[in-house]
């Protein structure tokens, strides 16, 4: 409905009465105000930070020999990180009391940070066929425990990097779409506030060498989905994302795995080209300037009800390479180009979360050799200090978690407490808490101050009042 008020003049003014045309015009304006308020409120992703603010999240390695925790990350950074990564498999393996493997993700580590940071839960299927409805139901109950009992915002990143055979479930768009739809339906029914994150891999190098024997072995349905340019084969001209996209009604946030591992070699320490991340998300491979599938416009700028993120990101320092760049030079270049760049933040305002991959790990290089790569930016004093200074220079552009008292009793990380009975489940042990459940107005992470609550209620009241006035005015004209 077009909302335009009449501008025609009335010959004899009547200051105490309004013509039918004026009443209709007023009703139209009031309705437009109400509609604009609703549209403005709905044209955002779930739990999206306000205005131009962005969030910085962290993956952390709590295993031997690193023993990182959310608390140590916060201490090193000097700020309370608002989002922390956890992961687990589905179907969920039983917890192994000897090795500590399996079981639900150790959310208790986030509890110990004494903040209201969100849980970023990545779920890795073994295979889609192995997952039952009960598996999704159990996952939903676990997430609901985080939300209702621990008052945590939860991002759920299901089956990430689904385009590649390096994942046991990868390179199966038909299977992925069916599993995603089932997952979404079951989890949203039980834990509707869960933020569903669809997160493919970078389009660089797509289709990742899978266009030969691997493509030929696929079903006809999968081949048809993947051959987006209709030339009868899988090649670099096919869309790296669309065969796997579940649809706007089944996605809340959209992520991308994006790394710098070296140009031109992925085993040498070279500083990245200027504009590296911007090139990738706008459809150009920085390695050779070739065209790749465009990401930002298609999945961020054109979807105002979605927010985007770098779901896992970082720059790899090759530990066994002598140069030419040092770890400080290499990682400062990454941060200044991709994370703390004012230009980057302003040019791509729909990217609202950067998840830093704070790991050191051995990976396979493009040539098949083993390469030890250190992605940690808080491990080198010069990198950390410069990063902290750059964040401070951006004023309040980054938003942080708030302090919050931890529960008085927390189970050990990932394992049931020793005093639990044999019948206690891993999930019950991890989510056990004596903290009273808050009853105040919810905000981005947990619950707001009294002043913010009043402002949020006032804003909600204005929106409701505008709608009521518009509806009342329309009714009077009928």
From TrEMBL:
What superkingdom heads the lineage?
Eukaryota
**One of the protein's GO biological processes:** substituted mannan metabolic process
Mind listing the UniProt keywords for this protein, alphabetically? Glycosidase, Hydrolase
Q: Does the keyword Hydrolase apply?
A: yes
Which GO molecular function terms does the record list?
Answer: mannan endo-1,4-beta-mannosidase activity
Positions of the GH26 domain: 6-387
Has keyword Transport?
no
Active site, UniProt feature? 161 (proton donor), 312 (nucleophile)
Q: According to its UniProt record, which protein family does this protein belong to?
A: Belongs to the glycosyl hydrolase 26 family.
Q: What is this protein called?
A: GH26 domain-containing protein
